[in-house]
Design brief:
2 copies of one chain form a homodimer. Helices cover 46% and strands 16% of the residues of chain A. Chain A is α/β, with parallel strands linked by helices. Chain A is elongated, with a radius of gyration of 28 Å. In chain A, 46% of the residues are buried. At the A-B interface, helix 5, helix 6, strand 2, helix 7 and helix 8 of A face helix 5, helix 6, strand 2, helix 7 and helix 8 of B. Chain A binds a DNA duplex (16 and 16 nucleotides) through helix 1, helix 3 and helix 5.
DNA sequence: CTGAAAGCGCTAACAG
DNA sequence: CTGTTAGCGCTTTCAG
């Protein structure tokens, strides 16, 4: 029944194949079959030798490895991924890699992934929901081993559910909603806010302004919360006004331009992140307000620039690189350990004392 | 000949398959076969409908598309890649994403890739040859459509040749060696150096120091070249000393700490990049040297920070984002157009006048 | 315009 | 310890 002319058939096939290969930019990639033949074993044995699986004669394996090296054999990840269902790829969806905070996180994530033999694909969402959705779909098509996202709020409910049900491990970099199915890893933002308040209070300040982000922004809100929590302790005579603006350099600049000229007894400012603090710095210079002589300033993040700013910025340090590292560790653990319950990690913070805050003038 | 019990055979197979699928974290992914069945066509027709290929009845296609959408069908990229040999993945190998320059490039590259439906995998090499080699191998296993590298010099000759022969399009972000097989895209570094010299000369400066990178660093050397070229024009009475150091903030700082105290008539400094210029800024503040009153300073790159530094840095602007964009455009063009000859693009530069350079004091 | 069938290169049972 | 074999999910001739 048509299974006769095996020889001529396979000859045809081989012909077609060769042609294809040659047209493929001359890439004469050695395939498993080639090294198997060259080593005088079947491709199964070759595969086993290379995958490091047990059950292979040491000498045989040696021979295979030798041939593979000589032929510069590179396994085809697609073929492997197709059968194993694993991709060795991790998706990293952040707002914008140009934000130094995310660059740090990305580097931490990439280093951890590299160590584990995985790749990370970079996605800049700008927190735009359409983009974010496309990224997630694209990543799932690639069977990624996991996804790291700085925030999932841009996604609508059904989309979130579908992601959760897909079984792909997800780690979020901002605060989780109660019983969300996703893991999270983030700095102790509340404590950071608290530390800033405590430090400034100990310096004698009593009238504060806190520059926060626009409305509800998970992490920034937590910082405000901790800050106010300290100031509103029983018996405290401190007062603080919270000003909302963009969580960027420009945002901080604009708010400060309005605030600084008529600051009404305010002697200390806590900016929700360093970028905003730099905006305050710029506005202060322009307006002739001296920092820290006239106003003390504390930031949050401890980006590299903080130490070289003028004056060097006192700020709350959060472990950005470690955040990225931890995120991929969690992803990989979730993958291998069949871990089903989401995990939540909180990294410590501490205040880095530099020159932008000083004792209140008596 | 064993082709009898088709029914029971396929039943077995299906059983095994179902089990596998279920164990796979409950991911009930719709496969092409499912949507084909659901639409009452064969998977061939389904495939054609979805791939947008011609030769499908409009109504049929419509039906397939509808079913696919309803079932949230996502093609498996591995399966597709395995047969097409294309991955829709671009590799980006840079020194360190935390360097703002590369962050800009990366964003440009990612945006261009996103627009073309491709992903970019991020690789931080630190210019370390072992890491770079591993990245390249890993990328080739993934059949990437192309690779962008900031420099290939960390690779030894044989490795470079193998890369070239593999047929994977490569775009370098630094100057090419004569008849290198790789494409390049970079800013007009020579002209940038020239512009810096011209600007400072017009301000009346005659004694210069140029802070360059360590020894031969492609792009930085070109900047030095352009700078010196201008100053050494016939009839010029200018003189310049070139100082080598690390091409980083620390590098600039250290060199400046030595240079500034006893600067011996030097009134203007040209730093090979902004990071080094910031190092100079810091050293100047510490040493009580005023910029631009005592010494003028010009940088190169125009990173975001340049505009908010104190004083705002006059610098040579290069189109970092566009560099990344152009690189992936070139990659994609090379892929589709079967373009064989390497392409070389040079992007323009211009000087951005801010506050760190001023007329020489008479 | 649509169906049947042959693989892409590799892994993973299952036998031997 | 090693060989056989059945696919992973999709694209792509080749027939009809």
């Amino acid at each position: 029944m048509g299974t006769r002319h095996i020889d001529s058939d396979s000859a045809d096939v081989n012909n077609r194949k060769r042609l294809q290969n040659e047209s493929k930019a001359g890439s004469s990639v050695a395939k498993l079959r080639d090294i198997a033949a060259s080593a005088g074993v079947t491709i199964a044995t070759a595969s086993r030798s290379l995958s490091g699986a047990y059950g292979v004669n040491a000498a045989t394996r040696e021979r295979v490895l030798e041939v593979a090296a000589r032929l510069h054999y590179r396994p085809n990840r697609f073929a492997r991924g197709l059968v194993t269902g694993r991709s060795q790829i991790i998706g990293l969806i952040i707002s914008d890699i140009r934000n130094p905070f995310f660059a740090d996180v990305a580097r931490g994530a990439e280093d951890a992934a590299f160590a584990a033999g995985s790749d990370v694909v970079l996605c800049n969402s700008d927190l735009n929901s359409e983009r974010q959705k496309r990224y997630i779909h694209s990543l799932m098509e690639k069977n990624v081993d996991g996804i790291i996202m700085n925030s999932i709020t841009a996604l609508d409910r059904p989309e979130q559910n579908r992601l959760a049900e897909s079984g792909v491990p997800v780690v979020l970099l901002n605060s989780h909603e109660r019983n969300s199915p996703f893991s999270t890893v983030l700095a102790d933002n509340v404590r950071g806010g608290w530390l800033a308040a405590e430090y400034l209070s100990n310096l004698g300040h009593r009238r504060f302004a806190h520059l926060s982000g626009p409305g509800r922004h998970g992490n920034l809100s937590m910082r405000a919360k901790g800050f106010l929590q300290y100031l509103r302790k029983p018996g405290s005579d401190a007062s603080a006004s919270v000003l909302h603006g963009g969580h960027t350099f420009e945002g901080g600049y604009e708010v400060a331009r309005k605030l600084l000229p008529d600051r009404n007894e305010i002697t200390a400012i806590f900016a929700a992140n360093d970028a905003m603090a730099f905006g305050v710095l710029k506005a202060a210079i322009e307006l002739g307000v001296r920092i820290p002589e006239d106003v003390s300033l504390v930031g949050f993040d401890d980006v590299e620039l903080a130490s070289i700013a003028h004056p060097p910025l006192t700020t709350i340090h959060q472990a950005k690189y470690e955040l990225g590292q931890a995120a991929v560790d969690m992803l990989l653990a979730a993958r291998s350990g069949k871990q089903t319950a989401p995990e939540h990690r909180v990294l410590g913070v501490h205040l880095v004392e530099r020159k932008s805050a000083a004792k209140v003038r008596s």
